Amino acid sequence: MTAPSRPGFSSYGSSAQGPAYPRTRLRRNRYDAWQRDMVAEHQLTVSDMIWPVFILDGENQVEAIDAMPGINRYSVDRLVDAVAEARDLGIPAVALFPVTPPDLRSEDGREAYNPDSLACRATRALKEQLPDIGVICDVALDPFTTHGHDGVMDENARILNDETIEILCKQAVAQAQAGVDIIAPSDMMDGRIGAIRDALDAAALSHVRIMSYAAKYASCFYGPFRAALQSDGYLKGDKKTYQMDPANSDEAIRETALDIAEGADMVMVKPGLPYLDVIRRVKDEFAMPTFAYQVSGEYAMLKAASQNGWLDNDRAVLESLLCFKRAGADGVLTYAAVEAAKMLKAG
Ligand code: PBG
């Protein structure tokens, strides 16, 4: 049925979406603010946001990070205060990233599984003082190695897959014993999810969850993060033999399928905004709890533009986070979690 034409209006017929213009006017549903709210398909809430935090040794330390305006490195005592604020705002979990002093770095990254590592001490402090917020910890060797890679190397500087996995399993168990709720393997090596699941289960840690960095790309957008961890000076070469090629998305599906088959409870795509298509594909394909990581470089871009007066900071932050929800993410790791939570609270 074709809508009757009126003078000055043309008619393009009807479709499954309803009659054609002028009977259908999509602008009607945008007429009032309440109307727009009523038909909004997606919403960002505080429980969608995980806050990544940088920790350092010492006491009463709060250090600003140049390339990430508004973000600090905290000593454990000050971390507890910062995380208490996040919890009071309703943020469900934090992800811990330790700065490793140079003398604790080694070829094989053995500090990774020290039960008294900074990450484990921070976890114990958080679990004792703030038991009702989740603690997530990366499992990867790059903060602990002298070469800055996520795995151990042979004499030809090849990253060794299976030898690395053994160390990752020890790291995961040490962290989980310290109280980490969610282990987040982030190195993109093969076979590590299954091995870590087995190691956790063998240590009576079957309640500990695994959020796998299932599709993590070899991205330039991690630059400010490496500076934040003071690990940028260490990395020799790049991570392209283990992290994914930004050209690929079929491969992201294979990577994610393997991690799910090995026992991942949740999967993640990283970086975020340049990879929304990958989030959508992963969510549609697997219907798993799917997370996105809005990484340090994305945060730095937003802040640089807002500080120059080129973007409205609050609107840019909230819009970028909402877009992850639209793309299919159930949640987002974002450095802007605390400021976004305050914005949401203020309404
Ligand atoms: C460690 C790790 C990285 C990030 C999270 N975990 C860096 C890397 O893989 O080189 C990046 C996070 C960010 O840029 O915000 N494997």
List keywords for this structure.
globular, 347 residues, eight-stranded parallel barrel, binds ligand PBG, alpha/beta, 11 helices
Give an overview in words.
The radius of gyration is 22 Å and the shape is globular. It has eleven helices and ten strands. With 347 residues, it is α/β, with parallel strands linked by helices. Ligand PBG binds at residues 138, 140, 142, 150, 186-187, 222, 225, 239, 295-296.
Sequence of strands across the biggest β-sheet: 1-4-5-6-7-8-9-10
Structural class: alpha/beta
Report the radius of gyration as a whole number of Å: 22 Å
Shape: globular
The total beta strand count reads: 10
Bound molecules: ligand PBG
* Helical segment count: 11
Low-confidence stretches: none
Order of secondary-structure elements: HEEEHEHEHEHEHHEHEHHEH
Ends distance: 44 Å
Mean model confidence by pLDDT: 95
Strand content: 15-25%
Helix percent band: 25-40%
Q: How does the major sheet shape up? A: 8 strands, parallel, barrel
Summarize the helices and strands and which ones pair or pack.
Elements: H1 33-39, E1 49-56, E2 62-64, E3 72-75, H2 76-89, E4 93-98, H3 118-129, E5 134-139, H4 161-178, E6 182-185, H5 192-202, E7 209-216, H6 223-228, H7 250-262, E8 266-270, H8 276-286, E9 290-294, H9 296-307, H10 313-327, E10 331-334, H11 337-346
Parallel strand pairs: 1-3, 1-4, 1-10, 4-5, 5-6, 6-7, 7-8, 8-9, 9-10
Antiparallel strand pairs: 2-3
Helix pairs in contact: 2-3, 4-5, 5-7, 7-8
Bound molecules: ligand PBG.
Residues 138, 140, 142, 150, 186-187, 222, 225, 239, 295-296 line the site of ligand PBG.
